[in-house]
Design a protein that fits this description.
The chain is α/β, with parallel strands linked by helices and 296 residues long. Helices cover 44% and strands 22% of the residues. The longest helix is centred in the N-terminal third of the chain and has 25 residues.
Length: 296
């Protein structure tokens, strides 16, 4: 198997698009298609199922992907060792969620952009379950999770920070001045939230299930904050995402303590060999995310 074919296969398998893979590899789309066909021909199996305008990995493609990634990592490491290159280089595919990408990871992303320009970060916005599946399959190198559990089957993970949550309302909301709120007190309130699958949204909904409150879904954190500030309801969000609004008075914290705790974590597939640029990324994530959480 030629390394260049594996590189193309890995890229298509990661983005699940021939067009996007061609753009990221700076190839013509026809070149990507012909390389995938050449690899399939050499192996005697189909690696992708074509479903109209979409594609997905076949079982054979799923089995090949972790080996392809390991071979690419080894080739990059061998090149660095032979050429004596001191500057970290390589691609890191990172699964993460909106609240972490926007509010916890900017210092880490900025550091790699400016100090390690040869390390290419490819961010994939996914929620916890999907991130964990992609890590186990070898589609992602690294994942950032915000979960109540800190042990994940088939993965190595480290807690980087406890992620405080805050129940928010507009300053004039009827619950804003009430002390010692209980879950029952929230039953009559309109709840505003991000999409299902978001860990704090799901835990909050589960906590209030006996009172069956209805959620008004806004999808993103920014849209949720605007909805709350506009008086449309109350929302549970990570404190790190609303520090500016709390400081300005645009939003207020209600007197309710969530009965669950979330932990921001970094994870990778168990027994995965971490090449030098991945080890660097993990080390810097430990340092910067923990520093940011302490200062918040």
């Amino acid at each position: 198997m030629e390394l260049r074919l594996l590189v193309t296969f890995e890229k298509v398998a990661t983005v699940l698009s021939f067009t996007r893979a061609a753009a990221e590899l700076t190839y013509a789309q026809s070149s990507v298609t012909s390389q995938i066909r050449a690899l399939e021909s050499s192996l005697g199996v189909d690696l992708f199922e074509r479903l109209g305008s979409r594609i997905r990995l076949t079982e054979a493609g799923e089995r090949l992907l972790p080996y392809a990634r390991r071979m690419i990592d080894l080739a990059e490491e061998a090149q660095a060792a032979v050429t004596g290159a001191d500057e970290p280089a390589g691609t890191i595919t990172v699964g993460t969620m909106e609240s972490l990408t926007s509010y916890r990871l900017p210092p880490l992303l900025e550091l790699f952009h400016h100090r390690y320009p040869k390390v290419r970060l490819s961010l994939r916005p996914t929620l916890g379950d999907e991130t964990r599946r992609a890590l186990r399959r070898g589609v992602y190198d690294i994942g950032f999770l915000m979960e109540p559990e800190t042990e994940h089957t088939g993965l190595e993970s480290e807690v980087l920070a406890v992620e405080p949550l805050v129940l928010l309302a507009a300053p004039g909301h009827p619950l804003a001045a009430r002390p010692g709120l209980t879950a029952a007190d929230l039953a009559s309130a309109q709840l505003v939230g991000t999409e299902p699958g978001c860990p704090y949204r799901d835990l909050f909904e589960r906590e209030l299930k006996h009172w069956a409150p209805a959620f008004m879904e806004f999808g993103t954190i920014e849209a949720t904050k605007r909805g709350v500030a506009g008086g449309l309801g109350i929302a549970l969000l990570p404190r790190v995402a609303v520090c500016a609004e709390l400081a300005s008075g645009a939003l207020v914290a209600l007197d309710w303590e969530p009965p669950f705790t979330l932990f921001t974590q970094i994870a990778w597939r168990r027994e995965k060999r971490l090449p030098s640029h991945l080890r660097l990324f993990v080390d810097q994530a430990r340092r910067l995310v923990r520093e940011d959480a302490r200062e918040a």
